[in-house]
Amino acid sequence: MATSRAVPLPTPFPPVGGCCPVPSTAQPRILLITPPLTQLNTPYPATAYLKGFLGGRDYAVTQADLGLELVLQLFSRAGLQRVFAEIEAGSFALSDNARRMLRLKNSYLSTVEPVIRFLQNKDNTLAPRICHSRFLPEASRFDNVADLEAAFGTMGLTDQARHLATLYLEDLGDLIKETVGPQFGFSRYAEKLGMSATTFDALHDALQTEPNLLDRMLLELLDTLLERAQPDIVGFTVPFPGNLYGALRLAARVKQTRPGTYTSMGGGYPNTELRTIREPRFFEYIDFLTLDDGEGPWLRLLEAISGHTERHAELAEASLPLTNQFQGNEAVEMLRQAQHDVSLQSIPTHQLQRTFLRNAAGEVEYINHPAPDVPHPEVGTPDYADLPLTEYLSVIEVLNPMHRLWSDGRWNKLTIAHGCYWKRCSFCDVTLDYISRYETAPAALLVDRIEQIIAQTGQTGFHFVDEAAPPLALRDLAVELLKRRVSITWWGNIRFEKTFTPDLCRLLAASGCIAVSGGLEVASDRLLALMEKGVTIAQVARVTDGFTQAGIMVHAYLMYGFPTETAQETVDSLEIVRQLFQAGIVQSGYWHRFSMTAHSPVGKNPAKYQVVPTGPEPGPFAWNDLWHDDPTGTNHEKFGPGLAKALYNYLHSVALQEPLSFWFDFRVPKTTVPRHLISQALQEPAKPDASRPNNRLFWLGNAPELRQEPGKKGRAVLTFYEQAEDFEVSVPAVLGSWLHELLTRLSTEYDTKVLLKEAAATYPTTGQTWEQFLLSPAWQLLREKGLLIL
């Protein structure tokens, strides 16, 4: 069972740019691997973050995305030839669809590499052939193709072709999954083996079987990588269950071919699923399992193994010829493992941080030296070196505008703040470090990192991967981007809280924001309060309207099946969602079924939420997803298909007037939500500008030109030359110079904050009071054109 060891007092981390402890011998060479599979369009950021951090401390780090490399190897002419040859030589029970694809083998072989080049944006001229000729062989994924001209327009050939090319790849993926690679999926690999795996038995058994074709391709890629990198330690990031099997299969190969090399694992899956691990067999593959952020544990681990890698390598080198000669011999394998264990025992592990290992007694031990976490401002800039950024694929899987951002385009990943500033939602893992420890970084430092990443990657698209990006931190980031005239395109996750005023939304849009996603969850004020979301439906409506008016797309995360949710509340939630889409203030959404986890408030205290845990019993391996009964709620499962169907139609502006019962094949209650609830929420008058004297003025436009018009009334005219359209503002002559000076200062001096009350203090004496001026047509026109109060 897992034990905890007493450790000495902590040693602080070296400061950024400072010197870290120098080992007595050469520092270990590090290889960081993202195993299959996560995304095809952009690298998962974990290895880039860790490489940037460790590289800043002079460690030699190589990184690789073996998920991408496996896909590129598989979907090449040579790779598909191996697939077809193995299918033809095997005894698979083929579906009609698979047999059709085998008959089209030559068509697939001749088109696969052009399609991959097209999806890599290396040959966009192929788009007309994909759209308008019989270029692509078609199988079952093409059976229900939507009206593409309606979806993409007559000029959107590239996007339309990208969608068809994605369907083509998914057809091939279906064939592979049916035959030579049953674990394959484009964003997961053997995911079922890692999901809710309270015991290690199924995974261990799968890893003991002969590698299938995809496994063999993956191991070939690893062999080449190991030969090139010559690592002393290989680290695997496992963000999802679908990465676990691949990581362990790769780790086994490292053990087999380089017994002198240590293996380590971290990432989102261990952080949530393996916090109570006591399975010794897991450590036949992985030497060190680290929890939470990797920076601190890796520093401690590298300090521990530095100076021991040479002795470890000597022991391994002595056994390697024997191992290679008698591979699979049980006695030889036991000798090699014993030598490896002896080497591990010589490591001073007492200073490791948040790390599991197998100790000399063969038991799983948890060591947590009480060292401080690496502060968020000191984690460094993600380093994308080694990753083949031009080789990623831009795909369009479904006709959903937000899902397209997830799968299309190369997005640099960056975090505004560590953790969640709210950290109260009862369904969320708020007890874990990645959410509970909230830290921010200065806006200037964030923009420094943005500029470094742009210089390295040549890409200006950013996905801010915060749990919920803080509104004030986003405000400061936007101001810094505008001040330094750094042009980026960005999107990220937020909470629909009232701090996101229409003016803040416009500022974010000016800084490059194109989309936000946020949790509406269950559109019921009772359940939102039970969830401790800290928002109301009316508030969500006003915030999403502010983003939409600023030209920012809004995606809503929706949830059904929350504890005690009734059928009435589910139907009422759908009605709220319908009204949000009808009002045009939400453009995308997705329904998730509530899941109870061990680290959430619901999982910690199910009685408070009137649910009954039914399992699984904690086992020696993973433990996070919990089963439960909801005695006071409805049969949630049966609502899923109808909710998904309704939402799909709503986001395409279809059937918005149909009764809610239209989407279900069983009787549902009529909604109790007033049909104009959302539109009435949007009619709430905004606070007058005069009521916000301590807020800052911000002008998004250019400095105007001023001219005085002669005449008895003495008018001054300010002319604005802007990107969209030029316009003029006319004010009394006495206000001309004052307003010109104010707007010029706001347009050029971003470092100088001008509060509304400070502008009021310099307002010239006229026949019009300050409050009257704030209601005047001139002021309202400026507010419309980009004068913000933040």
Automatic annotation (TrEMBL):
Q: Which GO terms describe its molecular function?
A: catalytic activity; cobalamin binding; iron-sulfur cluster binding; metal ion binding
Q: Which cofactor does it need?
A: [4Fe-4S] cluster
Q: The Radical SAM core domain covers which part of the protein?
A: 406-665
Limits of the B12-binding domain? 172-312
Example of a GO cellular component annotation carried by this entry: cytosol
Q: Which PROSITE patterns match?
A: B12_BINDING, RADICAL_SAM
Keywords, comma-separated and alphabetical: Iron, Iron-sulfur, Metal-binding, S-adenosyl-L-methionine
Q: Which Pfam families does the entry mention? A: Radical_SAM
Q: What is this protein called?
A: Radical SAM protein
